[in-house]
Amino acid sequence: MINILLVEDEQVLGHLIKEVLLLEPDFAIEWVTDGAAALDSVGKLVPDICILDVMLPRLNGFDVAKSIRKEHAQLPIIFLSARSAVPDVVKGYESGGNDYLRKPFSIKELVLRVKALLQHGNYTGAYTPAPDLTLAIGRYTFCTVSFTLCFGETKYVLTSREGEVLKALILHKNRVMPKDDVLNKIWGINTLFTSRTMDVYIGRLRKYLVHDPAISIKNIRGYGYKLILEDQA
């Protein structure tokens, strides 16, 4: 059974989404109507995916997603919002969202996106956290589960997108990482918007990594990026 947490305060829309999702034989739905209740449900239910409205009572969806990411780095999150401006969409991804669906939307499209995210995450049953995996890069360590980047006593908690991009760069250390590959793997789509968004993430990662001069991220024009770790011997 796939446990879906639906967080939507509009009663009519919430009922409609729930009823349509329940037509899928393997879907079980937990529906709550405010941000605080969403966090409570995540702790109790540990859902396989979260459908999250942005404009919510008590705690907005962006803040809910940030809180979820602290404990559940790999939990898929789909934002629903009437806020369709590019800065809002970018904020959604930066908050930890995996997808952003603008209102009004087709319920059928929502169902397809839910299935796509579950498939992308290789759903095999109940959601279970991945085992801890820490990667070393220069004088930094990076936990690929909590997306925590550490430099001595300095600690950064990255968003899920930042973490996935950094993980890909580290695994391709000193090799060119094609932009198309990472866009398709992390975003699941390669468009002008996602390409520009990734450039923003690369800029942020450079700021996080500034403490170690042996580390740099180079743009390979027209192809991708290269995380360079200079020989410290």
UniProtKB/TrEMBL annotation:
Keywords in alphabetical order, please: DNA-binding, Phosphoprotein, Two-component regulatory system
Modified-residue entries (4-aspartylphosphate), positions: D53
Instruction: Show where the OmpR/PhoB-type domain sits.
Output: 132-229
- GO CC, one annotated term: protein-DNA complex
UniProt DNA-binding region: 132-229
Q: Which Pfam families match?
A: Response_reg, Trans_reg_C
Q: Which residues form the Response regulatory domain?
A: 3-118
Gene Ontology terms describing biological process: regulation of DNA-templated transcription
Q: Which GO terms describe its molecular function?
A: phosphorelay response regulator activity; transcription cis-regulatory region binding
Domain of life where this protein originates: Bacteria
Q: Which InterPro entries match?
A: CheY-like_superfamily, OmpR/PhoB-type_DNA-bd, Sig_transdc_resp-reg_C-effctor, Sig_transdc_resp-reg_receiver, WalR-like, WH-like_DNA-bd_sf
Give the PROSITE patterns listed for this entry: OMPR_PHOB (PS51755), RESPONSE_REGULATORY (PS50110)
Instruction: List the protein's name.
Output: DNA-binding response OmpR family regulator
Instruction: Name the source organism.
Output: Taibaiella chishuiensis
